[in-house]
Structure formats: C-alpha cells, structure tokens
C-alpha cells in the first residue's frame, strides 16, 4: 500500500469511483480509493439503480440530467469492455391524490424549464405505456421517456477500471480505522492495511458517511435508514418503464435480464446501519406491487436484500468542504439517489476540490445550509 | 478387498490376462469382471465368439483369447467400465492400452497425461495415442494410451492436466449461462471473492441461488489465486431460501385476516 497520496477517497461505490476517475482525468497523480468490501458492495450495489430526472428541486433536476446524459455514452467515455446496461424505458410516476397530481404538475413545469421534457399523462395514456397497470385509485401520471435503469455493478466497475487506467489506486477489502487531523487540517488516513499521508480526504462512504465524518471530528446532519428491496425470477417483458408512486410507497422496474426489482421506504426502519431483511417488508411490498401490477401475482419472488439511504434533512446531497477541517470534503447524504447522481458527483466534486470553474454551482448544497436553515425540501423520494 | 475398495487383487488381475504366447501375437481383451451380476452386454457386443455364451446371466464372462483379436467393440459396452484392450506388440518398449473413459473433458491425441492405477494412485506419464468417441460408443469414449510394458496390469485410468480440467466454454452457472472461461477471466482481472464475481456476472443470482455454482466458483478462485478453498469467503446468502409465488403470499395474508376477524 502507498504511504502518501494527493487525494484519499473513502468509499468504493459509484461516488468514490466517479470522483477518482474525474480527478485522475484532470491530472491528479496519486488518487487512492479505500473500500471496506469490494466495489459497489455498499449502497451502490444494493440500490434499485433507477435513473430519474423527474425531481422536485432545481438542484436535483440539474444533477440528475447531467448524470443521465453521461450514462448515455458511459460505455464509450469510460472505455468499458463490458456494458453498463443502460435501458431508457422511462419513469412513470403515479399520482393517487389531487394533492400529488398538483405537485407533479409543478414538478413537470420545473423540469421542463430545465430541459427535462417530462409530461403529465392521463390514465388512458398511461395504460398505453403500461397495459397491465391497475389504474384504480389513481388520478394521473407523469412520464419522461429518457429516465431509465442501469446495472450498478458494471457502472461502478467501469468507473473504477477507467480510474485505475489513469493511475488511480483502488484498495479493496481495506477498512479505514481513523483520520488524523492536525492543526485543523487532515494529515493521515489510517487503515487496517497501513496509513496514508494526505492533504485531501473525500468522504464518499455512503451509508457509513457519518461514521467516517466522526473520525475527523465532524458532525454531519445525516442518518442512515435501511431500505429493503426484492427481485423476482426473470419473466417475459411486461413492463417497460420504472413505475413509482410516492403515496403508495413503491418503485418497481423490470430490468433487461427479466427480473422485477421493487422496493419501498419505511421511516420506522432501523437507523443502526443494519442491512438485514424482514418478512414485514415482503408482506407490504407484495401487497402494493400486486395491486399496482396484478400479473405480478404469478411472479416468483427470488431474493431480498437491503441497503442504506444516507438521509439529509432536505433529501438533497451534501457536496463540498468542511470549514472546521481543512482538506476534508463531503460527497454524502444522497438520500437514496446517490447512484443515479454518480456521474455529476464525480465531475462536480473533482472541479470543486481542484478549485475549477464548476459546470453546475454546488455551493447551495454545502454543509452550511443546515446552519443557516436554507433548506429546499425534495418532495419526491421513495 | 474388491467389495470394500473396488480394487481387484493381483491374482484376479492376472487371471484376466492370456498366456505369454497369446500376448506376443497381438491385441487382446482384458475383462476385469469379478463380481456376479446379471449383465451380459460384452457377450452381445462380440461378433467372433471371443466371449462365450452365458448359461446364466449372472455368470462371469468367459473369455476365449484365441477368438479375440482385440477389436475393442466390447470396451465401450461394459457398463462397469471393466474391459480393456492391451497390445504388447505396439512398440519396442511400449504397450498400447485402451481404456473406457467417461470424464470430461476428453484428453487430446498427443497429450501427455498421468496414468492412474485401479485405486487412483499416480503411476507414470503416458501418451494419448487415440481418442475414439463415435456415436455407437454411446458416450463411453475409448482412449488409447502408450504405456510401459510392465504397467499394462497397473494403469487403468488417466488424469487430464489441470489446465484442461474442464473445457472453458463449459457452463458453470446454469441459471445465468455463465461459462468457466468468463469466471476465470473475472478472477484474473481481480474479482477474487464469490460475491464480486456474482455481482458482475449474475452467477448465483438465478433461481438456484448459487446452490450449483458457488462451490465451483470458490474452487476456481482457490486454484487461480493459490489460496486454500476453506479460507475463502463464501457468498452472501439472501433470503428467501426457495422461490415463492407472490400470489401465495397474498393468499396467506388474506387467510390470516379472515381468521383474525
């Protein structure tokens, strides 16, 4: 293991690997990624891997759009010899109440103003896209055909390999045990395989970001919530877009391989970094999924797992520096959409760390917003 | 001994060989059948009375080495893989030994492989002279080996070298159609745990949930990285253990609701 590095990134998920790739591409020589397990073994690899641009805040829309556009050409850009399996089947968001319908209309307006050409669809129109959709109890839908889904393992692998080709080093199965701070600036990252001296540390630890921040003596306003998910056996193509409902609390997608992946949120879920699975989730998930898409009753469920949403109070990520500890940067608190924001996280954080002109100004997503109370709540999260 | 280990005694093996004189005349059959079972395909396979007609189907085959010309027809027919052909006149120092061989992959002509004894012990390296696998042999190929003359009573099988252990396009994961070659390539490119290989290749994500493939993959990791298989991380097991139709869960929940009313 190296003894020194210009930048040490903690976390080998999509964020960490994308930041490493962008830094290396911009010419930073010694970029190191430390990963406790293997690439995408945390939140990245556990997520539903939907790619959505239909958000309710301007920043989330912009970041999502930029990321989605990157994914469209990621295989070539990252010179990946595999396939990230990006399928743009759209996202069909279901409104079950008038209030939700009004919110969607507002969101669509905002999205359209930012170049995201989403639109409201009535239930008949929605049925044309998803013939098996049970529209009972629904009011309207919103749809954008450029949203989609991709394979989180291949996407992270693509970034990781590209970063390594540019000279970055990735240490798998290496656990960060401490961060040494001296005179208000980072000095060293300690791991179970040795210590690395560095002036720049990036916390991209996903569900474990608060643990890493604590090591540097920084308290960040995030918590990790368990979110569960399941997959069925592969079925014939039945569902083109991702189906999502905030009030019914479900997202459900048929991936190219044929399996249905679905999950839901539950704010009574444990917040102790547990990623075990529960029967209660299965019961509730199956009830909702078979109601929305009745043919799923015949589908055989195969496997369930869980991952961590690293939640912030406004459900927008925290990007940027930490005033008390010089050289300590955050790319955390993605609140369940860190995977789909990966490409933007990589580029924007690299620009920020190097002091370059930002492609998107991320100052309003800094840690400071929680002190000043300038929070714009993202309304659209499952 | 035979009953316990499957290995015949020296006397039994000797009894299957013809006289020195007959051996000098050319190829002959060696029928190492020492257990009375109701079985006679060797007799029906032979078209020159090399094996005499059975009075009782439980009889041991009675070989007439004068009629036998070592044609090998009976070798692939014996369900017990107990018939061999030996030709002591093959060359100055080597005899030709033909064995039935039902493992995959088959060796290739010209390969040097390890000859194994009745009990599986390594004996000597032998050259593969011919591999016969016509349809008529019904998936019991016959391999011709050049062996030292003093080993014709000892060598009865072969071990194909590791790199041709199994053919590379063999499917390791039947649920997701992942081949051995793909698994090996992933290991070589740094995916050194089952979970890493699973996530990238979908191996173990199918209906069997890794029941078939996980041990095979771990064995490959061990062999390529030189680690002890028992020291390697097994894959993460996810519930549910067996696939379940979602409608069944709904039925159960509805029933429960009824009962609670």
Provide key terms for this protein.
heterodimer, A: 382 residues, alpha/beta, FAD/NAD(P)-binding domain, D-Amino Acid Oxidase, Chain A, domain 2, 2 domains, 8-stranded mixed β-sheet, 6-stranded mixed β-sheet, globular, B: 261 residues, alpha+beta, Arc Repressor Mutant, subunit A, two-stranded antiparallel sheet, 10 strands, 20% strand
Query: Strand arrangement, largest sheet of chain A?
Result: 5-6-4-14-15-16-13-17
Total strand count of chain B, please? 10
Helix content of chain A: 25-40%
Q: Strand-and-helix sequence of chain B, N→C?
A: HHHEHEEEEEEEEHHHEH
Gap between N and C termini of chain A:
40 Å
The average pLDDT of chain A is 96
Which structural category do the helix and sheet elements of chain B fall into? alpha+beta
**CATH second-level architecture of the largest domain in chain A:** 3-Layer(bba) Sandwich
Largest interface: pair, residues per side:
A-B, 31 and 22 residues
Overview of this protein structure:
- The complex is a heterodimer of chains A (382) and B (261).
- Chain A is an alpha/beta fold.
- Chain A contains 11 helices and 19 strands.
- An 8-stranded mixed β-sheet of chain A has the order 5-6-4-14-15-16-13-17, with helices on both faces. A 6-stranded mixed β-sheet of chain A has the order 8-2-1-12-19-18. A 3-stranded antiparallel β-sheet of chain A has the order 9-10-11, with no helix packed on it.
- In chain B, α5 (180-188) packs across α7 (213-225).
- In chain B, the strands form 2 sheets. Chain B has a 7-stranded antiparallel β-sheet. In chain B, strands 8-9 form a two-stranded antiparallel sheet.
- Chain B contains 8 helices and 10 strands.
- Chain A binds chain B through residues 37-41, 45, 82, 153-154, 157, 231-233, 257, 277, 282-283, 286-287, 289-290, 296-305, and chain B through 191, 193, 195-196, 199-200, 202, 205-207, 209, 238-240, 243-247, 249-250, 253.
- β17 of chain A pairs antiparallel with β10 (244-245) of chain B, so a sheet runs across the interface.
